[in-house]
Design a protein that fits this description.
alpha+beta, Butyryl-CoA Dehydrogenase, subunit A, domain 2, Butyryl-CoA Dehydrogenase, subunit A, domain 3, four-stranded mixed sheet, 12 helices, globular
Length: 396
């Protein structure tokens, strides 16, 4: 693997960096990079930003031009993602879901009509998807989904419940896993659908998280009629499409870039803050912990580079994505805990408090980081995938 960038790629990085420095909305910066929060105001800023990137062709950089992309390389996408994460742009989870996870799966398995129907609008930032995966009794074992899709003339009739559905209250469409053959083995009776969230019979109920804001939802499907042309791929083969979509979900270079930014802010805080008569930056314990976090964040970055290298070869990362996911989830926990140790009692103050350190970023990271080892597949599931597919160990 060659980790160096070409002169053209470095020019693109400078172009991106200069653009972001100039164009990131000032109001977004005033709000303090709402990474862990969503409000009506932040949502409006995010949607406008995505449409702006879409018009520039940067929202779906690697996609074919016919679908709204620029046919740029995965390395260029990596550069763009790194720079946007470093700059703290208003690009939210809805972009990762739509552009990073769902649409590439539709590109692989959908019909040409489906691609032309959804991909160009997604690439322009006009539509977003939510994920209809988890259910009350189907989390780590996603093949246990009980939501049903029964054929009825030219439609499928959907009944069931999904849970932890991020941005379902904002989404235009749901990328839905439903059981189409109740008698088949559980991995062979699931199909994938695109469901219009405005369809009659869909009820979205908010789930308020530990930070007190709304991003998760319960979604109920009661006799929801979905046209047959909204089935993506082969009927009863949806589990395999779902697995591919999860591989897309588990890889992303933006995470280490955001970690580096948080580490840099902690380092700046330590250089400016005194405790017991000396700067925190002079404390050997703190220096050692920050140095270790910096090394680990760089390791994560290289793991993400490997994912990009695999994609550049025209392949889909599998256990490599799981390896990156579990390392990132647990490193995020270590970063949050170290941040709280450094800030001490001030780390418990949220934004809005005049004494809140780093505008409450570490508190929010601390409260949300445990969920990173659950969403997209628990760390235990990732280790099983690494053991079986990466190391060739038996299932039991």
């Amino acid at each position: 693997m060659d980790f160096s960038f070409t002169a053209e790629q470095e020019r693109f990085r400078r172009e991106v960096r200069e653009y972001l420095e100039r164009e990131v909305p000032p109001r977004w910066k005033e709000l303090g990079y709402l990474i862990w929060e969503e409000t009506d105001e932040s949502w409006d800023i995010t949607r406008q930003w995505n449409r702006k990137l879409g018009e520039k062709g940067w929202l779906a950089l690697t996609w074919p031009r016919v679908y709204g992309g620029q046919e740029r390389s995965h390395i260029d996408q990596l550069i763009l993602d790194e720079e946007m994460a470093r700059a703290g742009t208003p690009t939210g989870i809805e972009t990762a879901i739509t552009i990073g996870w769902v649409c590439p799966t539709i590109m692989l398995f959908g019909t040409e009509e489906q691609k032309l129907r959804y991909l160009p609008d997604a690439a322009k930032g006009r539509i977003i998807f939510c994920l209809g995966y988890s259910e009350p009794n189907a989390g780590s074992d996603l093949a246990a989904v009980r939501t049903t899709a029964v054929e009825d003339g030219d439609h499928y009739v959907i009944n069931g419940q999904k849970v932890w559905t991020t941005v379902a209250h904002r989404a235009d469409y749901c990328w839905l896993a439903a059981r189409t053959d109740p008698d088949a083995p559980k991995h062979k009776g699931v199909s994938m659908f695109v469901v219009d969230m405005k369809s009659p019979g869909i009820t979205v109920k908010p789930l308020i998280n530990i930070l007190g804001f709304h991003s998760f939802n319960e979604v109920f499907f009661d006799e929801v009629r979905v046209p047959k042309e909204n089935l993506v791929g082969q009927k009863n083969m949806g589990w395999y499409q779902l697995a591919v979509a999860l591989d897309f979900e588990r890889s992303g270079v933006g995470t280490p870039a955001r970690m580096h930014r948080t580490i840099d802010r902690l380092v700046a805080y330590c250089r400016q803050t005194r405790r017991n008569g000396r700067l925190l930056s002079e404390d050997p314990v703190i220096r050692k912990k920050l140095a270790r976090l910096s090394v680990e964040a760089e390791v994560l970055r290289l793991l993400c580079y490997r994912i990009t290298w695999i994609q550049e070869k025209g392949k889909t990362p599998n256990y490599e994505a799981s390896l990156t996911k579990v390392f990132a989830s647990e490193l995020l926990d270590r970063l949050a805990n170290t941040g709280m140790e450094i800030l001490g009692p001030y780390g418990m103050l949220d934004r809005g408090s005049p004494r809140a350190a780093l505008r409450g970023e570490i508190l929010r990271l601390y409260l949300t980081s445990p969920s990173m080892g659950i969403g997209g597949g628990t760390s235990e599931i990732q280790r099983n995938i690494i053991a079986m597919r990466g190391l060739g160990l038996p299932r039991k």
